[in-house]
Amino acid sequence: MLQEEAVSAFDTPLPHGEDRVPSRAKSVLVIACGALAREILAICAANQLDHVELTCLPAQLHNTPDKIPEAVKATIEENRDKYSEFLVAYADCGTGGLLDRVLEDTGARRIDGAHCYAFFAGIEAFDRLEQDQLGTFYLTDFLARHFQTMVVEPLGLDWNPELRDLYFGNYSRVLYMAQTDDPSLENAARFAAKRLGLPFEMTRTGYGLLGDFLNVPGNVSEPGGQSS
């Protein structure tokens, strides 16, 4: 059921049970948030990681982070006999350490960071961003692409526009962390900032720590750099 729900995060759904990174011999299962699907698939394709298979849980689980640990655990248990290693492409993601406690019992390991913004930017670089300016609302490629369904609709901003200032009145800027060089996503991120009534800034993070996490030799991230 979780895999079927996760299909909404992709543009090209596959029939139930089919692999997104086809291979005859799988040894590693990456369990990821649906918001990271494009990035992980791109890394796997670019680096010919044929031993890696990807399964995604719904990105909407971030609205109920307490459900993430059990969803990850259930996915591991369902696939225990099929893979030699499990990589969990979730940061702590608001679970308050519960995800780490679950993973201790399973032997799986997750990517470092409190959330995806930290591992895209790099842990230390993200800490500097946080210290540089409080009250930042972060966007990734996924959130720029799905701003309407992941932010506007869940918060009811279409039906109750006055809620915008209630939710975002204490924010000082929107910072778009771009994983790719896509003008349409930059435009979408700028529109999101305008929708929230906040100044827009942009930094190109590339794939951050994801490449190393997937055991890719070298650095697959794009060069960083900040612009407004």
UniProtKB/TrEMBL annotation:
It comes from Roseibium polysiphoniae. Residues 56-213 form the DUF1638 domain. This is DUF1638 domain-containing protein.
